[in-house]
Amino acid sequence: MKLIAAEPDIAARTVYCGPIDAFYDFRLGTLEYRSLRFETETLDEADHQGVAVVNYTEREVPYTRVIEHKHFEFGTQDKTVITREYPADWKPGDEPYYPINDARNEALYRQYEELAAQEGDVVFAGRLGGYKYYDMDKAIAAAFELVRNELGVEPTEA
What we know:
Layout: H1 2-6, E1 14-16, H2 20-23, E2 33-43, E3 53-55, E4 65-68, H3 70-73, E5 80-89, E6 98-99, H4 103-117, E7 122-124, H5 126-129, H6 136-151
Parallel strand pairs: 1-7
Antiparallel strand pairs: 2-5, 2-6, 3-4, 4-5
């Protein structure tokens, strides 16, 4: 990683949460990801769906999630803003969101994992660093485990 090479004394250990293949400048090949596309719209209504997030799983619905932003802050505006989240094919340069868990990518990830095991001072974390999909509860559990392992302390909830 360029930062570690440029500033070798910046930290004793680095927690890297980006794509593991990007860390190694894709020297073994490129892992595949699924990406997302977002469409945001202002609606002339006070409340569109009553909650912050609604997930859609029907095959006929082209988007997977609708976010109504005012419900995160409990807004009372006359209009509302929503964002629809659509699955999108990924290509290098796009934002990677979800690993593609198939035989090819799993085998390539294992090769990157072998390189990572030799780093010693870099911890690869998160869904991109570990090339693994996490539901939110599992993401939080993995973060707490990382704190336990790396800092030797028990994380506390705020």
